[in-house]
Amino acid sequence: MKSSDGPANASTARILQVATALFAERGFHGVTTRQIASAAGLNIATVHHHVGTKRELYRKVYQAFAEEDEAFVHEIEGLFARVDPGDGDAMRCLLEHVADRVVTFAVERPVRARLMLRHWLTPDKDFVAFDADHSLKMFKRVRQLVASARKKGTLQPRLDIGLLLRSLDWLVYGYVVSGAFDWKTWREDPASAKHLRAFKGLVREYLVCMCGLDG
Predict the structure, then answer these.
(1) Which of 38, 46, 131, 140 is the one with CA 20 to 30 A from 88?
(2) Which tens digit of pLDDT belongs to each residue from 35-84?
(3) 5-26 and 33-40 helices, crossing angle to 10°
(4) pTM (2 d.p.)
(5) Number of structural domains, the chain?
C-alpha cells in the first residue's frame, strides 16, 4: 500500500464515524453533507472526494453494519455447528448464550442501535432494496440453523422465525435506545452491570420460550 493511502483511509474512516453519529442523532434527511464535513473537520469537497454524495455515504455506513452482521451471523453458525440439534438441553444452553451475545452486540454499539431505529421508522425508497437484500440473507441463514433442530423436534418456534427475529431486533435495540427501566429514575444506563444482567435474563427467557424449550 502506498504511504499516501494512509491519510486517505484515515479521512474516510473519520467521515464514516462522524456521519454514523449524525445520522443516528438526526436521521438521513436531518443531516447535510456540509454538517458532516464540518463535524469531521474537513471541507465539503474532501468529503465528496472520499465518500461521494450523502446517499452514497449513507450506503457506506449501512454497508459497514452489514459487514458486522455478516461476522456476527458467521459466529452464531459456528456455535450451532458444535451442538447436536437433537439435544434439547444443549440447544437451550446455546439459545441462552446466543441471547447474551445478541444483547452484548447491541449494547456495545449504541450509535448503531439509534441509527437503525431511525432507519426503520423513516424508510427511504432508495434504500429499500439494499436493506431487504442484506436483511433477508441474514434471516434466511438463521432460519436454516433453526430448521435442522426443528426436524429433530427439538425446537418448535411459537412464532414464524422471521417474526421472531424481527421482534428480537426491536426488543434489544429498544432497550439500548430507551435505557434500562428503573422505578425511581425511570431510565437508567442500559450498559450498567445490574441492568444488563437483568435484561440478558429477560432475552434468554424470551428466546427459550418462543423456541418451545421452556417445557
Answers:
(1) 140
(2) 999 999 999 999 999 999 999 999 999 999 999 999 999 999 999 999 99
(3) 120
(4) 0.91
(5) 2
